Amino acid sequence: MKQVIKEKHELDSDGNPDGGHSLGLGISIAWQKGPLGRGEHRKEPSGAFVEGVLQAALGRLQFYQGSKFKCRENAIAITKIEEALMWLDSRTRNREERAVEGTHAV
Questions:
Q1: Domain count of the fold of the chain
Q2: C-beta of residue 46 within 8 angstroms of C-beta of residue 34
C-alpha cells in the first residue's frame, strides 16, 4: 500500500518555486523557500532540497541492505537513487559553470 503524502508547493509572484511542504506519517519536509543567492549575498538554507531527501532514502535502503532485508530490489533502488543524485549534481555543476546557481535564472 502506498503511503499518502500531502503536498503543497508554493510559487512566488514570478512563478518560481518558493517553499512549501510534504507531509505524511513519519514525514515532514519543509522545502527551501527561494534561492540561496550567490557570493557575499548567499544566505543559509531555510528548508530541504530534493538531494537531501534522496540522501535520507538512500541511507535507509543501505541500512536495509546490511540486514536480513537485503534484496535485489533494494540494490536496484539504491542504484537508481545514486543515479538521480548524480544527475542533480551534474545540474548543479552546470549551473555553477554558468554562474546561475543560487538564483532563479535558468
A1: 2
A2: yes
Check whether residue 53 and residue 30 sit in a common domain: no
For the entire predicted model, the pTM comes to 0.93
Residue 3 per-residue DSSP state: P
Domain containing residue 104: 49-106
Question: What nine digits make up the cell of 89?
Answer: 549534481
- The answer to whether residues 8 and 21 belong to one domain is yes
Name the helix (H) or strand (E) containing 96.
Answer: helix 72-97
Number of neighbours of residue 31 by Cβ within 10 angstroms: 20
Q: How far is CA 2 from CA 24, 25, 80, in A?
A: 11, 11, 19
3-state secondary structure of 68: coil
Q: What is the pLDDT of residues 23-60, one digit of tens each?
A: 999 999 999 999 999 999 999 999 999 999 999 999 99
Query: In terms of domains, do 100 and 59 share one?
Result: yes
Closest CA relative to residue 55, chosen from 29, 81, 16: 81
Please tell me whether residues 59 and 98 are part of one structural domain: yes
